[in-house]
Amino acid sequence: MKPLIPLVLGAVLAAGAQADLATDWARNQKTAVSKWQDRTTAFVAEMNRVCDARPEARIPAEHRRALLPAWYDLVEAWGVVASQEPAAIDELGFGYRVAFWPDSRGVVVRQMETHAVQRQTGQFESLQIAGHGIQGLDWMLSRSQPDCRLMRDWADHYPGYVDQIESAMPERMRLADQAVTLAANDLYAQASRLNQRLREVMNEPGGRYRPFMGDVSETGQSVRFIRAGLSDLGARLVLFSERLPDDRMRAPANEWRNTLVELADTLPDGWPEESDAAWDMIKRIRAANQGVETWLKNDVADAYSLLIGFNNQDGD
User: Which key words tag this protein in UniProt (predicted)?
Assistant: First the structure.
C-alpha cells in the first residue's frame, strides 16, 4: 500500500500548489454547474416559446425539431456535471432527482405513461419524482408529439433543483494538504463513472444490445453524454497536472487530453445499428478511460506518494 500521510504530502507538495488546485477545482465545478444552469434556462425558454405559439397541448412533429438543439445542449452540459458528480448534489439529496438512474425495470416509462393518461383524463395531481429529472424530459421528447402540459410540469421542478445546486457550489476541498489526493481520485472516479455508463450496453459482440443512459435514453442521447464527459475529463487532467509541484506529469496529461478529445470528436451522435460496430466503439471508450485510471493510480501515485483508486466515489 502506498503511504498516504499528510506530513509526507506536505513535504512533497507545495502548500501554494495545493491551495491553487483547491481553488481551481472548485471554480471548475462551479463553472460546469453554472453552464448546466444556463442550458436549463435556455431549454425552458425555448420550450415556452414553442408551446406558447399554439393553443393545443401537443407539439406537432414538425415543430418538435425546434426543441432539439436546446435539448442537445442541455444533455451535454448535464453530462459534464453528471460525470464529475459534485458532492453538493448528494449533500442536497438531489442525486435521484436530477440524474439519470438505472431504469431496467422501466420505472420512468411506466410513471410517465401514467402521468400522460392522468393529464388527458383530468386526474393529474403532481409530477412524481421519476419525472423530475432529465430522464423524464428524455421520455417526453421521445414522443412524436410531446405534451406541453407535461413539459411545463417538469419545468416547475427541474430548474429549481439546478438553481439550488448552483447556489451551494463550490464544494470546497476539505483540507489544503489533501487537495491533490482528492483531485486525483476525483479524476479516477470520473473515468470509472464514464465506463460504468457502458456496462449495460451489451455483454459481448452479437449479444444483448441496449444503449445506456441511466439505463436507456428514449431519444438516443447516451453517446452525447459520454462525449461531453470525455472532453471534460481531458480538460481537467491538464488542469490537475498544471497544479502539481513539478512538470513531470504535464506532457502525459496533455497526451491523455488529446486522446480523450480526439476520441470524443470521432464518436457519432448515436450508437451504430450493427452490434459488432457498437461493441468496437464501447471497447475504444473503455480502453481510453481505463488508460487514464492506470496512469493516475500508477504513474501519478508513484511520483507523489498518493493513494489513488482506493475507496473512490463509486466504491470500486
Answer: Signal
- Mean pLDDT for all residues in the chain: 79
Angstrom distance (rounded) from CA 102 to CA 222: 13
Q: Who contacts 306 (Cβ-Cβ below 8 Å, separation ≥6)?
A: 2, 4, 9, 180, 181, 184, 300
CA distance 44 to 39: 9
Instruction: List pLDDT tens digits, range 189-237.
Output: 899 888 877 755 554 555 554 544 444 577 778 888 889 999 999 999 9
The helix/strand/coil state of 53 is coil
| φ/ψ of residue 147, rounded to 5 | -90, 115
Between CA 241 and CA 24 the distance in angstroms is 12
Question: How far is the C-alpha of 30 from the C-alpha of 24, rounded, in Å?
Answer: 10
Q: Assess contact for 231 and 261: CB atoms under 8 A.
A: yes
pTM of the model: 0.76
Sign of CA dihedral 95, 97, 99, 103: positive
